[in-house]
Structure formats: C-alpha cells, structure tokens
Write a structure and sequence with these properties.
The complex is a heterodimer of chains A (228) and B (376).
Chain A (H helix, E strand, L loop, with lengths): L3 H34 L5 H13 L2 H12 L4 H8 L9 H27 L2 H8 L4 H12 L1 H16 L3 H6 L10 H10 L3 H25 L11
Chain B lengths: L1 H20 L1 E10 L2 E10 L3 E5 L6 H9 L8 E4 L2 E5 L2 E2 L7 E4 L11 H9 L11 H8 L14 H13 L5 E5 L7 H17 L4 E5 L2 H7 L2 E6 L2 E7 H5 L13 E12 L4 E6 L2 E6 L8 E7 L3 E4 L10 E13 L3 E8 L2 E8 H6 L7 E6 L3 E2 L2
Parallel strand pairs in B: 3-9, 3-10, 7-8, 8-9
Antiparallel strand pairs in B: 1-2, 1-4, 4-5, 5-6, 10-11, 12-13, 12-15, 13-14, 15-21, 16-20, 17-18, 17-20, 18-19
Helix pairs in contact in B: 3-5, 4-5, 5-6
Amino acid sequence: MLNEADLLALGITLKLAFITTLILLIIGTPLAWWLSRSQWRYKFLLEAIIALPLVLPPTVLGFYLLLLLGQNGPLGGLLQALGGSPLAFSFSGLVIGSVVYSLPFVVQPLQDACSAIGYRSMEVAATLRASPLDRFFTVAVPLARPGFLTGAVLGFAHTVGEFGVVLMIGGNIPGETQVVSIAIYDHVESLEYSNAHWLSGLLLLMSLLMLLAVYGFNRRFRLVRHGG
Amino acid sequence: MVSIAAFVWFDMAASIDCASQASILARFQIKRGEFALDAELNVPARGVCALFGPSGCGKTTLLRAIAGLEIDHDGMLQVGEMNWQQGSHFIAPHQRPIGYVFQEASLFAHLNVLGNLEYGLKRIRPADRKVSLEQAIHLLGIQDLLQRKPHSLSGGERQRVAIARALAVSPRLLLMDEPLAALDQRRKLEVMPYLKALHKELDIPLIYVSHALEEVAQLADHLILMEAGRVVASGEIQQLFTRLDLPLAHELDASAIINASVAGFDAEFQLMQLEFSGGTITLAAQPLQLGEQVRVRLMARDVSLTLQHQSATSILNIFPVTVAEILPAGSAQVTLKLDAAGVPILSRITRKSAHDLQLVPGKKMFAQVKSVALLS
C-alpha cells in the first residue's frame, strides 16, 4: 500500500503538473500563435531552442538550471538580493524547471493546430466585423481545441514523468520537492518493491487514461508531430 | 495641417457628389514578387460591377485591397461618402461595412449554419441592421439547413450559406471573389439564381470577381477588364462587350448584351416578344410579366447579315443595322460591330462574305439573328 510519504509525493507531483500545465498554456498559446504566423527569417532558431528539451538528457538541462537558479546563479542570486528565497531545491524551482522541460510538448501541438487554421478563417472573421482579439478567441481558439487538449495532456503527463531535472534542481526533500518518480527510485533502492509496485502501477494507469482520453477525443489528431 | 484640410475638402466634395451619383474610387499599387498590381478604379457604387480577366491578372488582389485584407500603404479608397484609405488614414477590415464572399465558402467549422450566420450579425449595431437574418436566409433558400454543420453540406449549399452570412452584416458594399468557381456546373446553376435575386431585391453595390464570361454576362452592369495587374478598360457591360479594340470581342464566344422589356406573348406558338430600341426580339415564351426588364445575349457567330430584309426565312429576328466597324478575326473571318438604333451588336462572318457584300462602315444592312439566349 501507499505510505504517508508516497501520498505526499503524489500530491506534490499532481500539484506540480497542474501548475506547470497552466503556465505552459498561458505562455504557450501566444508563443505557438506567433510561431505559426511569423515570417521572421530567424524563427527556426527559436523553434530549435524550444525543441531542445526533446533531445537533451534531463540531467544536462537540470545541471544548467541548477547553475541558473542556485544561490550563485544569475537568477537565484538576483532573487536572493531582492529578499527572496533561493529557487534551487524549492517547489518554485521545480515549477520553473518543469516549464522549460515540458515546453515543446505543449507548444508543438498548439503550433500545429494554429498552422492548420490558416489565414482564411481569420480573414473571414475580419470581414464579419471581428477585431483581432475577438477573432482569436472566437475562431482560432475553438478551431485549435484539439491542439489545446493534446498540448495540455502531454504537458501534464510529461511533467508527471519527469525525473532527471527534478533530481538535479529539486533534490529529494519529502513534502517539498519529492515527486512520485523519485519516490519510486528510493523505494527500489531500499528494496521496498511493494511500495514501488503501487506507485508505478498508479502512474502507469494515470498515463494510460490520459492518453486514452486524448486519442478518444481527437480521433483524427496526430499526437506526435513527426510521428508518421 | 495642409493634409487635414485637404481631407475635409475631399470628404465634402465626395458627399456632395454622392447625392447625385455615388462612386467607388480606388488606386492601389501592390508588389508581390514577380506580380505587380497597379490599378485605378472609378466605378458607380450601385449595381453589379464585374472584375474580369484571366487567372493571375490581379483581380483577387484588387478585391482584397478594397476589403483591406491586402495593404498598400500609399493606396487610396473612397466608397461613396466613406473614405476607407488615404495617406495614413486606414480603416481596418473589420471596421469596414463590407460583406465578403471567398472562392471557397470558408464556413466556420466549429459553428453550425445558424452560428455562422449570426457570427457577423451579432457584431453590428442593431441600428445598422438593414438586412434581417430572415431575409438573408430566405433570399438564399437555406431555411432547412440552419441546424446543420458545414461539413454535412454540399458545395452549393455551403456557398449559399457563405453568401447569406455576408448579407447578414447588412454591408454597404458586397465583395465576391469567384463565388462559383469552385463549384461544378450543376452547383453553379443552383447558386446563380440566388445571385440574380440579390441583385434584384437588395440595393447593395456588388463587386464581383470572375474569369467566366458567362457569369459576367448574366450579372454585371459595369465591367472592369484587367490584364497583367492593370485595368485595361472600364465601362458599361453593353459597351465593353462590343468594343473591337478589346479582347472580349475576339473571344470565340464573343457576344452582345441587350436589355429589353417583355412586350407581348404569342399563345398559339408559345413565343414572346421583347422590345429594345433597335427592334423586337422573338423567342420561346417564359413565365414573365408584361413590361418586365430582361437581358438577352446575342452571340456574334449567330448574327449574319443580309442586304435586303428576307421574308422567306426561318429566322424570326431581323432588324435594321448600320455597320460601325470591321476588324479581321483570324485569316478567314471578320468581326463586325453593328449599330441597331444605338444598341451595339456583334457579328462574325467570313472575310469572303464581307468582301462580296462590300461591307464598309456606314453601310445599312439587316442583321439576322439565329438564336437568342435569355439571361434573366
């Protein structure tokens, strides 16, 4: 069965995934829209940087984030100078790490969905008196709904499954930064296979249910961008 | 300061002018890679104005510029008393009182037909609602489609919904970009009557882009001929169709358009008479009212010439004409412009016939018309 620490880890994992997904939808939507519309010739640079977490070992990403967020890092130092607490080994640090790590999983489906809308629907809305913001919310967003659903679920699931980044910048503080994936690792290290089974099974079930929901909902929507 | 003063003057001049005769004035220069549009426009802001020309001649770009979807920062556009673009003054597309119908219906896939129709309607002030939703639905005959989703409609139905959607915003100017081009012949025939009905029942000026002469002949009052990004000619359709210095008169299906009124019916032979200033046209009877205005098309190849009025002939339509102009059409034929009491008609005959009849401008002849197509 799950012990108290496991439940705590589960709670932190879900909270982290929710907050991360929310932030990613908020910053990912305008970013994806801009990427799908912009004619900027160096756009590919930005696209490559956003896609980096797809190929980079999480430990590498975690290492640089640690340098950035730690006491002596530019961001961590700045925050401390302003009277804040250090970001490394804190829940806030985990959120920042997760946002960076899961960014492509939200932005890419959104960008695909935005590109699929094309210019025509937006032009039609313009000739029907809708202002740019109005047509974004009443035409682009509803038409990009499959992309939002896919992006949200992928961002959420990917954050739940994160391990390397968390280990590097969050450590393993129970009740603060210990997430399920790390708790499982701890259990296996201590040969507590029963606890590991319960947590692993739960995560497996959760992931499967989320993906079933996406595939069932967007039957025609391709989940992975270059998957076929 | 100077520019503001000039502005006010321009507006005032336009509003004084518009009381008698409103017009659409435009000037756009747009470069897109190899293609360059350099067009000036001055057309009446009433009736149907067709933008006609081959594919890629810039008619769609010009239409989009009028809607504000294509931007020329130095362009100028004046519609009746409304100044839409001049200098730094530019009214955004969504603030222009236009209705736009694209080549593909482009209905919003996430809304049903009614939702599509109401999208624009909801966004205009109640005071500006001149065309009611019911009227738009009725005019396009889409009463039974309201709850359907766009993907379940046929191509013709979709385009009718798109036209109704554009009407529902009570536009002061309708813009249509080849609304029939994406439809097959049967769907074209399905939608055409609705376009004609609009023309008749609503007093909204329409600019209609087309590369199909057939559509233009049926709908247009005014014609703008375009070629390679430029306006080649602009004028009344009757005049432009029959000008020998323009390409239209040299097409295989060159024709003349005649506006006439229903003058009588012959019950015994099921015929009717149409009257125009050049004479009477007899053709198969149609369910029309006496005095109703109709439009007919005479193909140049169906008009032959004779020196004397023939009496023993199967041809019913014969009227006196004067030869106005002659131009060779290929090596064996000539195209003639004829004057039937002020109404221009085209005839295409062999060069040999023209030679044997000694046809020269000013010569009085009789035109025999083999067949007449009723357009309305």
